[in-house]
């Protein structure tokens, strides 16, 4: 273990996620909710959010303890409440354009919608950090 993380079994450096990474994970989960709503009319279940978080962390070389991950999962519902009150795309085809699928399941931050959801996520993470201090 280094000061910033450790090397996993696949040789990748795994780092504890910082506030910006938490906001990116939160953004990913909120967009995941939007896709699920477009597909089924329902938000993602908690087990799907936990799995999506795990996959995002693995893809991004991050590490997060279960309690912190649970807080981010819960925050995704809070941010989703703000997002669905706005005029965002509601069909799966348009929502899939928010991802850069050429590189995997990564959000395309060139999209104004992704950037706006990210801004809401940053505000949510910052609020949570302020409440802790």
Structure description:
The chain is built from five helices and five strands; from the N terminus they run ββααβααββα. 60% of the residues lie in helices and 10% in strands. It has 133 residues and is mainly α. A three-stranded mixed β-sheet has the order 1-2-3. A two-stranded antiparallel sheet has the order 4-5. It has one domain (5-132). The chain is globular, with a radius of gyration of 15 Å. Residues 1-10 have low confidence and may be disordered. The chain has helices spanning 19-40, 46-59, 66-83, 92-96, 112-132; strands spanning 5-7, 13-16, 62-63, 99-100, 106-107. The longest helix has 22 residues, at 19-40.
Give the overall shape: globular
Q: Specify the biggest β-sheet.
A: 3 strands, mixed
How does the helix and strand content classify structurally? mainly alpha
Helix and strand pattern: EEHHEHHEEH
Widest β-sheet, arrangement of strands: 1-2-3
Strand-residue proportion:
5-15%
Total count of domains: 1
Report the C-alpha radius of gyration, rounded: 15 Å
Specify the number of helices: 5
Contiguous low-pLDDT stretches (5 residues minimum) are: 1-10
Q: Would you count the extended β strands for me?
A: 5
Mean pLDDT: 85
> What is the straight-line distance between the termini?
27 Å
